[in-house]
């Protein structure tokens, strides 16, 4: 007898029953189970043929319970839509193509801007002269720590040599403008040393020192940060490192007031050396470096 013509012994199993109820051991009277040869055969989940003897009933009823549960879940529309959404992957966004198009648009805008700038101003960057124009902004040189003796050797007296100045411990390289900072230049007195006090008071002859005692907070806050920003953001100058100063003896005398006629033009007001007069003549040197 085939399994299709024989009524399944699992037809009485309810979907609400759990598999554990079929696994509980049951006692049967001796001789009540017929021989295995005379029992109908069914296929299990692995494709093997098993008989409907009592020892196989827990597994067969569990399989019937699983089938009924699957049919019950399949009859729910919400579950069906959820399962379909889980199986169907969401389409991946085409980010690569959008990024390529955006890069191409930006490149075209940049090229148009450069061509217009060359046509109007003769400069590809619209005559911008800030720090972002120089390569040292993107690839800064190695910062050095100078002693006062090392700093003094870079005072602009050597032709083609390095020219350094310091402001409140920070060292700046001004070698590209020897006309102003080199020997005979208007601000030659400021190089090779830390003349922070002179940058506040404008007295480079008597205040060429880093001693800032006696100056008001207002003077320091207005002058020192402004001078540092000027040398940091200049297209030709850059920060080269720091200088190590010995501590100032507290009992030492505070520098006196600036002598008459010793104030450098533009210093002490936050003005750049290049913006001060270059030689005292009328109309001279609004921007002596240009």
Strand order of the largest sheet: 3-6-5-4
Structural class: alpha+beta
Mean pLDDT: 76
Helix content: 25-40%
Report the β-strand fraction as a percent range: 5-15%
How many β-strands, per DSSP?
6
- Uncertain spans, ≥5 residues at pLDDT below 50? 1-6, 8-33, 276-290
Give a nutshell description of this structure.
The protein has 9 helices and 6 strands. It has 290 residues and is of the alpha+beta class. The N terminus and C terminus are likely disordered.
Please explain how this structure is put together:
The protein has 290 residues and is of the alpha+beta class. The chain starts with 18 loop residues before the first helix and ends in a 46-residue tail after the last strand. The chain is built from nine helices and six strands. It has a four-stranded mixed beta sheet with strand order 3-6-5-4. It has a two-stranded antiparallel ribbon with strand order 1-2.
